[in-house]
Amino acid sequence: xxxxxxxxxxxxxxxxxxxxxxxxxxxxxxxxxxxxxxxxxxxxxxxxxxxxxxxxxxxxxxxxxxxxxxxxxxxxxxxxxxxxxxxxxxxxxxxxxxxxxxxxxxxxxxxxxxxxxxxxxxxxxxxxxxxxxxxxxxxxxxxxxxxxxxxxxxxxxxxxxxxxxxxxxxxxxxxxxxxxxxxxxxxxxxxxxxxxxxxxxxxxxxxxxxxxxxxxxxxxxxxxxxxxxxxxxxxxxxxxxxxxxxxxxxxxxxxxxxxxxxxxxxxxxxxxxxxxxxxxxxxxxxxxxxxxxxxxxxxxxxxxxxxxxxxxxxxxxxxxxxxxxxxxxxxxxxxxxxxxxxxxxxxxxxxxxxxxxxxxxxxxxxxxxxxxxxxxxxxxxxxxxxxxxxxxxxxxxxxxxxxxxxxxxxxxxxxxxxxxxxxxxxxxxxxxxxxxxxxxxxxxxxxxxxxxxxxxxxxxxxxxxxxxxxxxxxxxx
Length: 477
Ligand code: UD1
Ligand code: CA
Fold this sequence. Notes:
This protein is an alpha/beta fold. It is built from ten helices and 37 strands. The strands form seven sheets. Strands 12, 13, 15, 16, 18, 19, 21, 22, 24, 25, 27 and 29 form a twelve-stranded parallel sheet that branches. About 45% of the residues are buried. The structure holds uridine-diphosphate-N-acetylglucosamine and calcium ion. Calcium ion binds next to loops.
């Protein structure tokens, strides 16, 4: 929808004191993206002629998000006069003087708001030819919100803030969502008249509503169908509630696209993740960042993937992985830790208690048990023995190792990087590989084993071991 008679004002200058946080409130993440970026994405979907975002508190950090997510938005700095009314006043001043369309004002802390709800609100405003139309919601607990005060005939009278409300007004459960459509001309007339004569000594945008009514203009409040759409985030209780709600929406969206999510209540999927049909997500799993999961893959239980790429039919169990690429039909876990720049090609395996980092493991190659693989390249069809360590760090620098295709390394090896093991080579159990191994060679460097007969009987007489050894000697005789 392209709407060239619409300006959107996003209010993002407030401090968010109720979060008690070093991080500005609007940068607290929900579904893997700052709260504010959800509002910016919704604004972008409306394709308005002008978007203005008002900033002040931590202005550089907020402005950076705005510039990244919605570069067409103008950024306006709010001055020292506090309040949402002042923020809108300065935003409207930044619009071209001849702009005569509608001004949609949205609080930056209403992250669940969707473009459909806003389009409907704008539609209602226009068809009624109102001066102002606001979004309201009926909440079980209206504490903290501005209340919608209606006349006996049900028409909108004004908004009263929680801190300015009488006991009777506080009992009203219809709240102001902080989302308004104003016709530009009457808004321009009223904004300069706002005062700070209230409990918070701020200019309230909500006072414009009552003022328009008093001057005989048409105003109305439209309740949302689903109250949670309008829920604002002021503290961390509301933050987790909004995050859980958005997560539930994201999960049901993927379920409808053909993804099996066995336990939505213990599954978290970020907004930027993408999942193909016939993916199965098992309980306790987090699909975070820009992770993509291809068709037929099984992820979980108890798995966290951050910015990973999971191939078709891959199986990833009880794994923690960041920036890893898992090929089709590959298998990972249980209990694997994949650090950034791990690439496992098709049908490969990173098994139980294996940590990998900055390593490329080729197709059908396996690191099945108890190993650390760092700064390594492993060819195709190789098998790395149980309990192998790629010693990539000499205490000062990191070095890399190259293992060829179809190599078989024994259990409990150490590969002291930099080393290269040629295609098809073998290493014996317990080998500490310090020199390159040519293709097709067997490398062994463990000391020959020496058995000292009778050592237990001499040195540990009368122990269970000595008795067992004696009994074994008897049966042999
Ligand atoms: C506001 C409304 C209240 C409504 C609620 C909905 C006012 C006076 N009250 O209250 O009626 O029920 O939202 O969630 O508007 N901001 C600025 N500049 C400022 C102050 C705030 O840009 O000087 C921004 C904030 O960053 C925030 C938004 O405006 O994104 C709302 O501010 P907040 O302080 O959270 O208002 P509420 O008390 O929630
Ligand atoms: Ca708020």
